[in-house]
Amino acid sequence: MHRNEMRLDPLTDEWTLFSESRAHQPTAPSVLEEHSAQTAANPFIAGFEHYAPHTLYQAEAQHGGRVRVVPNRAPVLRVEGDATRHGEGFYDHMDGVGAHEVIIETSDSRALEMLGPAHIAQVLRAWKSRIVDLMRDVRLRSFSIVKSVGRPAGALLPHAASQLVAMAVIPARLKRKLEVARGFYQQKKRSIFEDILGEEIRTGTRVVYENHGYCGFCPYASRSPFEIAIYPKRQVCDFQTISEEEDLQLADVIHVALTKLNGALDHPPYHLMLTTAPTRTTRQDHWSTLERDFRWHIEIVPRLYPLGALELATGSWVNGVWPEVAAEYLRGIQVPE
């Protein structure tokens, strides 16, 4: 008889349904096949900068590489507009105010994990710099970094790139995390992130890799096989405030996590998502304890299967690989020096 279990994510209050009967071969192919099939000119590679000439940020990296940030040519949000919410009968609406930028992580064809920690740290600094700059617009409240690799994850080009999306509202998933973190702190006078991280390090069964500043682990209620979360060990809610030394430590964990993931699943499609605290207003609203109760974090979620009707209908996730099994397998994969 197949083993079944349900696990609750304490941070999002979402259930994951684990079932051995769902531990089957991924349907998504290796992203390396997309690279070999690419025939059109890559607008993000060196020599084709004229396709994206408006540079918002640029930094040189190791081995002649370059990190560059440009506006998204098909933005979902724009800085122009009115950020005031209006009623339309029963419904609310507002202009699509925000920002949508592309971080070109390298000027050559290497994947992010192939760039090395020093280059990855430059990418992190580009993320930080653009968040700080966009925060000058007082209309913008939340900032997300999203990275999609592979067509099943929504990537249109096989190039190392990520996106920054700034919104004039606090989106529902972030608000839920903020509310959970605030409620936990009010009850126990400590951060839920501190307790989650403490439990992962104490047991060690789901830890994939850690260094002095960060811990990468497979979450207890992982939404996807081999999902990896990265938490800072220091209590800090704003990603853009971390030091350059912490940039290098984080780059090390990202490099190791993605390299191990490639070894385990033969370069799978995935989403990488960075969640950081929203801006605080001058009034004392209910996010006034963020410095003590919330912690920025990264989630790396492989896209091995199409999203099913069960996930859409219930808001729960289906996973065929328990995180303890995934973490043990990932720990055993060697990362070249």
Quick structural summary:
The chain is α+β, with helices and mostly antiparallel strands. The chain has helices spanning 31-37, 117-134, 172-188, 192-203, 244-265, 290-293, 309-314, 323-331; strands at residues 4-8, 15-19, 57-60, 66-71, 86-88, 91-93, 98-104, 142-149, 161-167, 207-210, 214-217, 228-232, 270-275, 297-302, 317-319.
List its traits.
globular; 10-stranded antiparallel β-sheet; 28% helix; HIT family, subunit A; 337 residues; alpha+beta
Report what the structure shows.
The longest helix is centred in the C-terminal third of the chain and has 22 residues, at 244-265. α2 crosses α5 (244-265). The mean pLDDT is 90. The strands form three sheets. A ten-stranded antiparallel beta sheet has the order 3-4-7-9-8-13-14-12-11-10, sandwiched between helices. The protein has helices at 31-37, 117-134, 172-188, 192-203, 244-265, 290-293, 309-314, 323-331; strands at residues 4-8, 15-19, 57-60, 66-71, 86-88, 91-93, 98-104, 142-149, 161-167, 207-210, 214-217, 228-232, 270-275, 297-302, 317-319. A hairpin with a 5-residue loop joins β3 and β4. It contains eight helices and 15 strands. It is globular, with a radius of gyration of 20 Å. The protein is an alpha+beta fold. 28% of the residues lie in helices and 23% in strands. The chain has one domain (4-331): HIT family, subunit A, CATH 3.30.428.
SSE series: EEHEEEEEHEEHHEEEHEHEHEH
Which stretches of 5+ consecutive residues score pLDDT under 50? Answer: none
CATH homologous superfamily name?
HIT-like
Radius of gyration: 20 Å
